[in-house]
Design brief:
The complex is a heterodimer of chains A (262) and B (237).
Chain A: H1 2-14, H2 16-41, H3 47-50, H4 57-65, H5 71-87, H6 90-97, H7 101-135, H8 146-174, H9 177-198, H10 200-203, H11 207-215, H12 234-256
Helix pairs in contact in A: 1-7, 2-4, 2-5, 2-7, 5-6, 5-7, 5-8, 5-9, 7-8, 7-12, 8-11, 8-12, 11-12
Chain B: E1 4-15, E2 18-29, E3 33-37, H1 44-51, E4 59-64, E5 79-82, H2 94-104, H3 110-118, H4 134-146, E6 152-156, H5 164-179, E7 183-188, H6 191-194, E8 200-205, E9 208-214, H7 215-219, H8 224-236
Parallel strand pairs in B: 3-7, 3-8, 5-6, 6-7
Antiparallel strand pairs in B: 1-2, 1-4, 8-9
Helix pairs in contact in B: 2-3, 3-4
Classes of the chains: A mainly alpha (262), B alpha/beta (237).
Bound molecules: adenosine-5'-diphosphate and magnesium ion (MG).
Chain lengths: 262, 237
């Protein structure tokens, strides 16, 4: 098992594309903190009336909550970990070395969750740092409480661990790399975002809604009636996310254990 | 005394409407080079994939050392395989690809230089496999198969796409391995190419075993190609 995990980690480290993905996750998350700071502080920006500004604690909450937004990249990396094997025909070699496919999958699931964690920690730090730098241009602003950073950190870490695993399951199910990644991007950036924002009763149980609940910060009054009250509290939100991890681990196993490989 | 190393036992594999392998039974003897011959689409790759646990048979089975591949402890120390899929990552170097395989089975990295040397690929060790010629890819696949220094080698059409020099190289490579007493099962659809390399043959056509035996028994003075044509025609007549 430890040998297999080492082999999986080696694959992760060797591939340049994975490092690029890490970089993009940071840029994406940093856009999430920096863009609202710029919008909230522009004189006639569209966000001005809708949300609290950075001079209020709620505005600061809204900005820094986005630092956990890089989880899409944890999901993509999980997908790549699984689908690279099919895309490049390395699945055959992998399963020849370890015919017990469940062992290979466990190693992949662990590697993907670790990789997801790394992505989320990196993008969290990158986004928080960028947010602080952007704020210095718009003094005075409300203070950034340590508790807020802790809550967002917690959401980042858990979402990274979980979505790496979800990615492996999704990749095992879909097999086709482009289809799986495209599907994941469209789902996360468009479909899921809309459902989470506008149909909270369902959205709060989707991964993004659960992550939102896990962040657990107050955004104050705003035009979209976007209240944290409507989402799960951190405990249940964590359970929902762990449920997704379990479900997609199961999907990875069920699809891969008896599949014909060519 | 030779013994049976690999045995196909009434193996069948159906893909929807295609019966790729049909009640196929055959034996491969220890320490010999066995040619697994038949035209394209005969079912060679399917039979080998079933043997290696990559494809699930719809009937029967295949054994190595008296058990299924998945029951082997540390299989790559016992069986090395080269299949027709590429089997390595184009964005990684030859060495990185080998390191991934070696670390998955706790093989010492010093073995990597040995196998690269063995297949004459040492000079390209640190090149990305993306730019490899077909011959280089085939040799890298052989290097991967040799990582665990296995006594059994299973090669699916290793000569495919090789230029004449590559084929000569491959033939000498196989003869060297055979000389070390390894058991080699090598498939091919180019019968002439195998005539001087193999000692035993299994002939398969349309998923069915046509003949098996030593090359002398099968050929009876004819070329392998003539023998094959006659045997398949007689069988389907
Ligand atoms: N994954 C697959 N799905 C459907 N049919 C297949 C698959 N693999 C092989 N076949 C069919 O099975 C038959 C045997 O193929 P194969 O084992 O590749 O033959 P060979 O290796 O001797 O050329 C062919 O008719 C081929 O089209
Ligand atoms: Mg074939």
């Amino acid at each position: 098992m430890s040998a297999l995990l080492k082999s999986e980690l080696r694959k992760l480290i060797y591939l340049r594309a994975n490092w690029l993905l890490l970089l993009w996750s940071g840029i994406f998350a940093a856009l999430g903190t920096v863009a609202p700071i710029l919008i909230l502080n522009s004189d006639n920006g569209p966000g001005r009336g809708a949300f609290s500004g950075t001079e209020t604690p709620e505005g600061i909450n809204g900005v820094f909550a986005n630092a956990s937004g890089g989880y899409l990249f944890a999901l993509i990396l999980g997908i790549l970990i699984m689908t690279n094997e099919y895309r490049h025909g390395t699945a055959v070699g992998t399963f020849l070395v370890t015919p017990k496919r469940s062992t290979v999958l466990v190693a992949k699931l662990i590697a993907a969750s670790l990789a997801g964690l790394v992505i989320q920690l990196f993008s969290f730090i990158f986004a928080i740092t960028s947010g602080f730098i952007a704020l210095t241009f718009f003094e005075p602003h409300a203070p950034v409480p340590a508790e807020l950073l802790f809550k967002v950190f917690r959401a980042s870490a858990i979402s990274g661990l979980v979505l790496g695993i979800v990615g492996v399951g999704l990749g095992a199910l879909v097999k086709n790399q482009i289809a799986a990644v495209t599907g994941a991007v469209i789902w996360t950036l468009i479909v899921e975002g809309l459902v989470v924002a506008f149909v909270e009763s369902i959205g709060k149980y989707l991964p993004a809604g659960a992550i939102f609940g896990l962040v657990d910060v107050d955004f104050g009054e705003n035009d979209f009636n976007f209240s944290i009250e409507n989402y799960l509290s951190p405990g249940p939100a964590t359970l929902v996310l762990l449920g997704y991890a379990a479900l997609f681990s199961l999907i990875a196993m069920r699809t891969t254990l008896r599949r014909d490989l060519d | 005394m030779s013994s049976v190393k690999i045995e196909f036992k009434d193996l069948s594999k159906r893909y929807k409407d295609v019966l790729a392998v049909s009640n196929f039974s055959a034996q491969v003897q220890s320490g010999r080079v066995t040619g697994f011959l038949g035209p394209n689409g005969a079912g060679k790759s399917t039979a080998l994939r079933c043997l290696l646990g990559l494809v699930n048979p719809t009937g029967g089975g295949a054994e190595i050392n008296g058990g299924s591949y998945s029951q082997l402890v540390d299989p790559i120390h016992k069986v090395g395989a080269v299949l027709d899929s590429r089997g390595f990552h184009p964005g990684l170097t030859a060495k990185q690809n080998l390191k991934i395989m070696a670390s998955a089975s706790d093989i010492n990295f010093s073995r990597i230089d040995e196998v690269l040397e063995l297949v004459d690929l040492a000079s390209a060790a640190n090149k990305r496999t993306k730019g490899f010629s077909l011959g280089m890819k085939q040799r890298l696949s052989l290097a991967i198969a040799m990582l665990g220094d296995p006594e059994i080698l299973i090669l699916d059409e290793p000569a495919n796409g090789l230029d004449p020099l590559g084929i000569v190289w491959l033939r000498e490579f196989l003869q060297k391995l055979a000389g070390e007493g390894r058991t080699i099962l090598v498939s091919s659809h180019q019968l002439a190419e195998m005539q001087n390399t193999v000692s035993d043959v299994l002939i398969i056509n349309k998923g069915v075993l046509v003949a098996q035996g030593t090359i002398k028994e099968i050929c009876k003075g004819r070329s392998l190609e003539e023998a094959f044509l006659e045997l398949t025609l007689r069988k389907s007549a």
